[in-house]
Amino acid sequence: MSFSIYEFPLNEKVRNYLRVEHLFNALHDPDKICKEHTEIQFFRDFFTLLDLIERIDLKTELMRDLNNYLIVLDAWLEFPDVDQRALNHTKNHVWDVINRLKSTTRIGKTLKADKFLMAIRQRFSIPGATCSFDLPKLHYWLNLEDEEKLTDCQRWLNDLVLLEDCVKIALSFIRNRKPLNEENAPNGFYQGIADNKVELIRIEQTKNKGYYPTLSGNKYRYSIRFMRFNTEENQSSSMDETIIFKMAGC
Q: Across-strand partners of 3?
């Protein structure tokens, strides 16, 4: 039996973390690079990521979360029978990432000096403006050897490795706060109260059951409603039976 995980952020910070993670996952998809028509999608995702990190102050939030993680790791070291070696390894990795983040002026700043990227970036915001007559320079690049294109893509992504590491650690810390526990939703509805530390609601359900969860609420209280899947617009209806699922308020 296979399962799907749905994640619902309760604040803007975690919402941004998840979006950044989602875009990195897309950019590391090997089908996005060096296959017919897929390089264009690579650039779309890459420029969307740049737009996102330029619009928000991720560095401040990440510094705060990573320092909080260190405090938690120190507390865990006091527990008996804990794997001290593994915890110290994690702690050293977090320290390294924090120090690298401190020395960074602005995430992604060096990419602004890349003349090729900046020459084509603006056009990607215009629908359909990636044709050869709009971007002849891009279409020349698309016809380079695969090895050369892969080298360029990896070089651009390398400038964002620190951001990817930081977000990965921060989300891992948040997700591991609480384990998934079984819950019931009578008539497809569940309501919960969040304390001030809950930032992310994680829901696990069996795949292909014909319904999916939706969440509404804020950092104080939230409600989950399971909806029937229907491809027809505005035809989804809520479930009228008890749904058994797993949930964690992280």
A: 206
| Nearest 10 degrees: Cα torsion 57, 61, 64, 66 | -110
In the numeric block, which tokens belong to residue 139? Answer: 């279409």
Here the tokens at position 63 are 């510094």
CA distance 135 to 89: 47
Report which of 26, 40, 41 is spatially closest to residue 134, judged by C-alpha positions. 40
**Residue in this structure with the two tokens 């109260």, named with its chain if needed:** 193
CATH fold for domain 12-174:
YacF-like (1.10.3900)
Dist. CA 132–CA 193, nearest whole Å: 54
Q: What is the pTM of this model?
A: 0.91
Read off the pLDDT band of 200 (50, 70, 90). very high
Of 225, 249, 219, the closest CA to residue 238 belongs to 225
Do 246 and 203 meet the contact criterion of CB atoms below 8 Å apart? Answer: yes
Question: Tokens at residue 143, please?
Answer: 């016809």
Six token digits for residue 245? 């699922």
**78, pLDDT greater than 90:** no
| Intrachain domains 12-174 and 178-249 with the same fold | no
CATH class of the domain comprising 178-249? mainly beta
Query: Which contiguous run of DSSP H or E holds residue 249?
Result: strand 243-249
List the chain domain ranges: 12-174, 178-249
Nearest to 38 by CA among 135, 149, 154, 161: 149
Name residues whose C-beta falls within 8 Å of residue 58's C-beta, 6 or more positions apart in sequence. 16, 20, 107, 163, 166, 167
* Number of neighbours of residue 245 by Cβ within 10 angstroms: 22
